[in-house]
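Suppose a classmate hands you a notebook page containing two proteins, each written out with its sequence and a corresponding row of structure tokens. How would you begin to make sense of it? This section walks through that situation. The first entry is reproduced here exactly as it would appear on such a page.
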Amino acid sequence: MEKHDVLIIGLGPVGAILASLCARAGLSVKVIERDYEVYKEPRAIVLDHEVVRQLGLIDCAEEVLAHSTPGQGYEFINADREILTARGAPPGPMPTGYWPANLFHQPSMERVIRSKLEKMPNVDIELGVEFLGFEQDDEGVNAIARRADGTLAEFPARYAVGCDGGRSLVRRYLDVQMEDLNFNEPWVVVDVKLLSDDTGLSKNGVQLCDPARPTTCVPSGPGRHRWEFMLKPHETAEEVTSPETLREWISAWTDPDKIELERSAVYRFHGLVAKKWRGGRVMIIGDAAHQMPPFMGQGLCAGARDAFNLAWKLVAVANGEAPLEFLDTVERERSPHVKEVTKGAIAMGKTVCVTDPDEAKLRDEKMMADHKAGKGFAFPGVPRIESGVLDDRLAGSVFPEPFIGDPSDPDRFDAAAGYRPLLIVRNMDTLSDSARTALDAASARFSIAALKSDTQGFPQLLDPEGMVAELMDEAEAILVKSDRIVFGRGGVNDLLFKWGEYLRQGLLMTRSGC
């Protein structure tokens, strides 16, 4: 029986991304999934610029963008449809080269990733397999599962990752408890196809702060739209998902004859984060490790970030470059980040979910006064990573994507660099002999480039607007993790030494908030 390097349980988007990354890095990957097909109905609808850029590392960004549309503005309105606060459309792409928010169709995205995954020779996907449990020891993990014909099967691997969703069985077998961030509200989510170009629906995301029925109305990709309606305590799933009820509610926004109901489902929006992400050689990521309300559109983005954070670390541990305990850095780096994003989404949700008319009146008055005074609403943002990086004001942030090649027809550097850490040098001509020697030795593990190159063969970055040079400041070099999070700046020798310490100890460096 073949023992794979990594067993991934669950082939949703997070599991598929993780499998692709591990396989591209040379690991043998086994994936088991209970369902035979990609889940046909949309769930997540937002990919931010960081995650789209990361999808480029598995050669999927442009194909996924073909099923998306750039997000525009965002506004809160009261029951009388008056603006409480608003954020306008972004001026253009982010330094990553992609739109801040991209509204997409999840089934199409998953098919893009899976189609590429199925062609990879070191990936073995088995569908119709239900995970039952596992055993593990110092050598690896042995998962037990049931195939569709009822027979039991074993799947041995050196490491296993549960990407099996909010009801994760892997999490249960690890006996992991969830930290409750105190948000629990029932909503019905309604997805529709637009049958007309003149629906009158806004291209902005809209939060209707109506105490009688808090509602979200947002584009959800080309030719699609989504509503989310908060439920009242006495309402049942059966009545709120009936076509008659949904048509009535939607008629307040557009002519229901101009849309086609695609699906509706009742969810409890809540904020939960696992208290432990690793048990021995088994990890959990994505919805198995955290869930958040949808008000910031960050649920799937958070899971994708998990995968991009974890994959290169699995490779490092599997190849003997780091100890098993290094995998704990996934939780140390990702859990605080996920909690902050979840708290931001909860804060937005609590602003919307006011059902007491008097409290809503006070909220509306304050928000409108702030809006007129130019103060606006503090829309939560996505924070930096605060652990596993150097004490550097740039560390923990997303590194912009530079270009290389012909200035008249440049190529994205990520396409050439791949899913590896980056070491960007300011000027090859001014490096010391020891730094040059260290750089040559590091070329097997890093993708290396320079703002000013020489004849050593390292590519020269195109930086016509000086964006990368400005970020580097006076530093000799900048080191960027495989997931494109900045590790820090400094001298080549010092950065490589601290990188080695990070792999060995994980907790050595933590940003002090400078």
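The notebook's second entry, a different protein, reads as follows.
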Amino acid sequence: MDAAAGRFGPRRRACGGPRIGGGDATGRQQRLTAVVVSTYVDGMSQATELAAAAGSTDPRVGLRAVRALRRLLERLEVVQVDNARRQGWSWQEIADALEVSRQAVHKKHAGRPAVNSSWEA
């Protein structure tokens, strides 16, 4: 990748590309920038590294990490709302847990099909 030119390599999932973790902060930022991170996270250490990268002084690195975290968060919310509904939770109980209105959570999740219980799918 040519960071100065702002071009990124081919899109790859984090699990299929170079490991994001390890090394010093500069190396970690270069690897994060070189890989388009998907919502799939191989473990807690990668999620932690994404969170750390979101605070990078390099906006390219930070914004890419924010995007990856946003996608991960949305996927996790879908999985957990489905888990709650399968266990009989009301829309109000889910809304209370997410600290949003019942109408907001119902509007976002009621019309979509249920997903697999595995968030890595």
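A careful reader of the second entry would note: The CA atoms of residues 37 and 68 lie 6 Å apart.
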